[in-house]
Batch of 2 targets.
Target 1
Amino acid sequence: MAMNISAEGQEITRRFFKAIELLKEAGQIRGLQTVTRRYGLNRRNLIHVADSPHNTVLKPELLHHLVKDYGVSALWLLTGEGFIFSYGSDTATVVPKKRRRKARESES
């Protein structure tokens, strides 16, 4: 039985895959397979989600992984507002996790 995903849910899914593409362009990941291997996901199922956002659900923990491990903005993922990356940039230049942590520590 096919699900009927809201327009907001579909947009969240599209932003998730846009973030994956930007991380790939920035050289932070090699592609979707990097994410599926790192988190023990079925690549084929995730491709199905990308192809059918109108009737497939993106697991919330996948959003968590992008936010926690790759610096993607939770606000942007959920609402489309603000910058794509949590450190204030819409460019595909991704700050490595270690540098982000050091920057936060020096602000304290």
Target 2
Amino acid sequence: MGILGIQYALSPDSVLVQSDIRWSPEIHQSLKKKFESLSLRTYGIKNLKRDIATEYPCLKDITIRYSSSLKSTVHLLGWRPIVRIRSSVPTTKEYVVCESNMILSKDSFNNETLHALPVITIVGGDFEEKRVESEFINMALNLHPSMFENYTISWHSKTQICFEDLKNPITIIADSLSVHDRERFDYVQRIYRSEEKYKNGMKADIRLKDSLVCTPGAKQSL
């Protein structure tokens, strides 16, 4: 008898719910109560996934295993979080970009998970529109981890992305294409170290295809 047949045939005496450790306690407890109250044998796994995922978009997959003692273990897998995004106004407005282009409320995750994620700030009043732009999502999912280690990142638009160096007085302006060109970022760093005129700060525009535009001056957010 296949797994679907077992799910229909058995009515477990007890249900053990094992959920994604990255979820918030509220999500975990809510899903635990949900599954403990369900009559699992009346559900096909396909319908179960569809119905639960509609209510809990943080849920990626469900696996149910039965033991001979009529006990069931429900494994709940969530979407993997990649980066936390927040609005510059107000700063309390936050989401999490997850794998497969999923954007979830920060309330889906526990504090430990949130604090471990890199952050991108979206600048401007049209935060809700910018956070779903395809260029923004692509950058959030594909930006090299070292960029978050070395810069504070703010998204103004797909043609203006600001990188503030965490160690040196350097501001780098990129667009949605040049943002992935790590060689250009490295070249800016070499220029800063080799040119005395930039010792008090430098702004570098790397958006032009064939050249860099570097100007001296104190680092400042745009």
